[in-house]
Amino acid sequence: MSASDHPVDHDVHSHGDTHGHGTMRSYVVGFLLSAVLTAIPFWLVMTGALQPGATAALVIGLAIAQILVHTVCFLHVNTSSEGGWTLVAYVFTGVIVFITIAGSVWIMYHLNTNMMPGMPTGQVSGTP
Amino acid sequence: MADKLDQQSRNEAAASPTFHLMEDEHGHGHGSPTMLGFWIYLMSDALIFAGLFATFGVLSTSYAGGPTPREIFELPLVALNTAILLVSSITFGFAMLAMEGGKVRTVQLWMLVTGLLGAAFVGVELYEFANLIAEGATPQRSGFLSAFFTLVSTHGLHVTLGIVWILVMLVQLQQRGLHVENKRRLMCLSMFWHFLDVIWIGVFTFVYLLGTIR
Q1: Structural domain that includes position A39
Q2: Which of A12, A92, B83, B175 has a 20 to 30 A CA-CA distance from B17?
Q3: Burial class of residue B177 in the structure, from the number of CB atoms within 10 Å of its CB (0-12 exposed, 13-18 middle, 19+ buried)
Q4: What is the pLDDT of residue B17?
Q5: Which chain A residues have a beta carbon less than 8 Å from that of B65?
Q6: Which fold has domain B33-213?
C-alpha cells in the first residue's frame, strides 16, 4: 500500500479505531447491568433489609461498580481509544476526585471532633 | 519482514510529505483532537462536581435544627428520576448506533426521545425542589440544604444545557445531515450525556440513599 492510498483507506474505515465505539451488545449489556446495580441499592435502602452500616458499604460498592459499567459500556473508555489518553485522564481524574472528597470529609470530621471539645456538635455544625 | 515494510512505507512517506494525512485527521470525526479535548473538559467538569460532593460531604449533617434527609427526601421520586436518566442513556446509545449506520431520521428520532426523557428528568427535579421549598426546606435553611441544592441543581443545569444541545443538533441534522462535523458533535454530545448519568450515580448514592440511612 502506498502512502497516497492511505487517506482513502482511512475514509473507508470512517468509523476508525481511534475512539471507542459502542455496539448494540455493549449498550444493552450496560443498560441491564446498570438497571440491576441501581435497583439493588434502592431496594436495600427502601426496605431496610440490612443493618445501616452494611447497607452503606454495599450501596457505595454498587455505585462504584455502576460507574465502571457506564465508563466501559457507554463512554467506551479503554486502553485503545485516543491512544489510551482518555484512560490516563480518567484514572488521573478518579484519583483527584477521591483525594478531594475523602480528604475534605476526613479533615473536616477531625476538625469538628477535635477542635471544639466543649461545644456540642449540633452547635459546631449549626452555622447555617 | 513487517519491520521492513514499515520502513519502506515510512521512506515513501518521507519522500512525499503527507500533509493530506493531517488534513484527513483534522476533518475526521474520530481522529480529530476534538474528542480528546472534549474528554479533558468532561474530566475537569468532574472536578467541579468533586468540589461540590466534598462540600456536601462536609455539610451533610449540618441541619441547623432544620429538616433531615430522612424527613424530606422522597426515594420513589428519586428512583423514577434515576430510571428516566438511565433509559435516556440507552436511547442516546441507539442514536449513536443509527449514526454509525448513517440513518439520519433514526438518529433524530432517538435524539428526540432522549431530549424528552431529559426534559422529564428536569421536570421531576423541579417538582421535587418546589415541594421542598413549599415545606420550608429552602437552600438558606441550613448548610446541608445549601450544599444539597447547589450540587443537585448544578447537575440539573448540566442536563438542561444537554437538552439545549440536543435541540441544536436536531436542527443541524435537519439542515446538513450526517456529515463529518455533525458526527463529531454527536459523539461529543453522547459523551456529555453519558457523563451526566455517571454524575447522577454519585448524586443518588451519596445524597439520597446514604442521606436516608444516616
Answers
A1: 21-76
A2: A12
A3: exposed
A4: 53
A5: 122, 126
A6: Four Helix Bundle (Hemerythrin (Met), subunit A) (1.20.120)
**Closest alpha carbon within chain B to A4:** B18
For chain B, the structural domain boundaries read 1-30, 33-213
Give the pLDDT band (50/70/90) at residue A124.
Answer: very low
Q: What is the pLDDT of residues A48-107, one digit of tens each?
A: 889 989 999 999 999 999 999 999 999 988 888 777 899 999 999 999 999 999 999 999
Contact yes or no for A74 and B194 at CB 8 A: yes
Question: Between the CA of residue B193 and those of B16, B89, B150, B156, B159, what are the distances in Å?
Answer: 42, 7, 20, 12, 8
E-strand ranges in chain B read none
- Cα of A110 to nearest chain B Cα, Å: 11
CB contact under 8 A, B142 and A128: yes
Whether this model's ipTM surpasses 0.85 comes out as no
Domain stops at, among A76, A98, A123: A76
As averages over each run of 10 residues, the pLDDT of chain B (214 residues) reads 56 54 44 87 96 95 91 94 96 95 95 97 97 94 96 97 97 93 94 96 95 89
- Are A102 and A83 part of one and the same domain? yes
Residue B101, phi then psi, degrees to nearest 5: -85, -5
